[in-house]
Amino acid sequence: MATHFLADTAVLTGRTLRHVTRSVDTIVTTAVTPIAMMLLFVYVFGGAIDTGTVPYVNYMLPGILLITIASGIAYTAFRLFTDMRSGIFERFQSMPIARSGVLWAHVLTSIAAIAISLVLVVGVALLMGFRSGAGVLDWLAVAGILLLFTLALTWIAVIPGLTAKTLDGASGFSYPLIFLPFISSAFVPTASMPGPVRFFAEHQPVTSIVDTIRNLFTGQPVGGDIWVALGWCAGILVIAYALADLTYRRQIS
To answer: Domain boundaries in the chain?
Structure first.
């Protein structure tokens, strides 16, 4: 059964990857908005924000990486919505393939496409002066956190991709997720925020994830933030996967 699932998922992933490679602009578009934000914040607002001895591009890059992921998952919902409306899911149901392989193919394609966008963003950050004192293990930890965060948000994207009535509805859900880093420690220290906003910023998932990645980039101790960040990512992933699986079963029943 496991071999059957893996083989079917590999074939279906190849199909969705081919769709992405035929429209590389989706990957570029995913990276363009975060890069534009990075340029704006560093060269326009960065001088007015006190981050101590840390260059502002280093300070805000973790938040930009999370925005890149939030932007990329909109295309996951878009691709799922397109498949649902084209009738391809009905054809898949008539074939002897693992049903969950269809969803996993879209998820794995999302991870691959977003990974390329993240590399593009980091490349531009390096040109803007980003430097990291992180070792190999620190970079692997950053990659692991970003992967887990991507998985969590991608499974969230599956739900509107399956249930949306319009294309705008399928991709529009990502806007609140893109906005969330702005109410966190991603771009300004939370100490500068008014009371209620500061409370929300310090207790929402993005802040712990951003702080953890920032400390890993600088080679500083991450403390308890890493466990909070991993707990948020894992919790969101489990809930999103369960809801996405339930939604999928209802849609194809």
So the answer is: 2-252
